[in-house]
Amino acid sequence: MATSLKNLSAFDQDTIPNGAGFTIGIVVSEWNGHITSRLLEGAVETLMKADVKESALRIKHVPGAFELPLGAQWFAQDEQIDGIIVIGVVIQGETRHFDFVCSGTTQGIVDVTLKYNKPIGFCLLTDNTEQQSIDRAGGKHGNKGVEAAVTVLKMIGLKKNFN
After folding, report:
1. Distance between CA 99 and CA 76 in Å, rounded?
2. CA-to-CA distance for 87 and 151, rounded, in angstroms?
3. Is pLDDT at 4 greater than 60 in this prediction?
4. Active site includes 97?
């Protein structure tokens, strides 16, 4: 396993742009809230360390992972939003429902990103067990919310450099 015993969330603060002028929308799934809340905490802490103002963070909750693309689309339609982070957790069950939710959610996020030309930090955990998700929400593998925040900051900075 590529992530075995590795914290993948470490980053060099100097490699991310200053976010003082950025407005970020965050869409968080209520399903598996004990995990998504930890991912959200990691994302918000990282954004604030990059000088994104608390007043420039817009956080909305949706019922589950499958609703993340629509929540992201509503943020993407807002011209004041520079980038979006989506946060959700899907844990493998006994049926193929997992496959359909993961696939549909992922494709929906890709579609929103390309249609609206706005960066989306993708924090959708798709793990086999609850423990694997916990390990990626501030546990031994870091916090994927941190990684999504770093990604969206870098992509907003890159987009502003294209203009």
Report:
1. 26
2. 13
3. no
4. yes
Q: What is the DSSP string of the chain?
A: -TTTT--TT---GGGS---TT--EEEEEESTTHHHHHHHHHHHHHHHHHTT--GGGEEEEEESSGGGHHHHHHHHHT-TT--EEEEEEEEE--SSTHHHHHHHHHHHHHHHHHHHHT--EEEEEEEESSHHHHHHTEEETTEEHHHHHHHHHHHHHHHHHHH-
Torsion of CA 23, 60, 70, 68, to 10 degrees: 100
Q: Which amino acid, one-letter code, is at 131? A: Q
Cβ neighbors of 123 (< 8 A, separation 6 or more) are 39, 43, 85, 86, 87, 88, 144, 145, 147, 148
Length of the chain (residues): 163
Look over the chain and give the mean of its residue pLDDT values, rounded to a whole number.
92
For residue 93, the model assigns a pLDDT of 81
In this predicted model, what pLDDT tens digit does every residue of 122-150 receive, in sequence order? Answer: 999 999 999 999 999 988 899 999 999 99
From 34, 61, 97, 141, the catalytic residue: 97
Please say whether the dihedral angle defined by the alpha carbons of residues 13, 16, 18 and 20, taken in this order, is positive or negative: negative
